[in-house]
């Protein structure tokens, strides 16, 4: 497996990324325009045997904290540490770019991701209910100097 790190919209991988996003998030659409609207978009893609098996997307939040926005792994590939490898690579890249903190939101429905965040040094800093009535957990991590 190899991890590709790209700044901006990964147009050459857009169709497989959209298909994997739909696979992970119950058919949800990920239009290119939504990706194009994110400032300093960072895309990490896990590829194995020329197939996209995982992804991690994020961007600079207006408060200067990097927001790790979306991610997922193909169902049959889960349990192999792919999400952790994507996270480690993302944090390494962010440190090189000078970011001091990374934030992500989690939902109780995705327990494996909640556990992964905690294992990788994130702290729970708050919770809220989004505009769709879903409870969200806010995680933040200070990136090491």
TrEMBL record:
<feature type="domain" description="N-acetyltransferase">
    <location>
        <begin position="1"/>
        <end position="144"/>
    </location>
</feature>
<protein>
    <submittedName>
        <fullName>N-acetyltransferase</fullName>
    </submittedName>
</protein>
<dbReference type="Pfam" id="PF13508">
    <property type="entry name" value="Acetyltransf_7"/>
</dbReference>
<dbReference type="InterPro" id="IPR016181">
    <property type="entry name" value="Acyl_CoA_acyltransferase"/>
</dbReference>
<dbReference type="InterPro" id="IPR000182">
    <property type="entry name" value="GNAT_dom"/>
</dbReference>
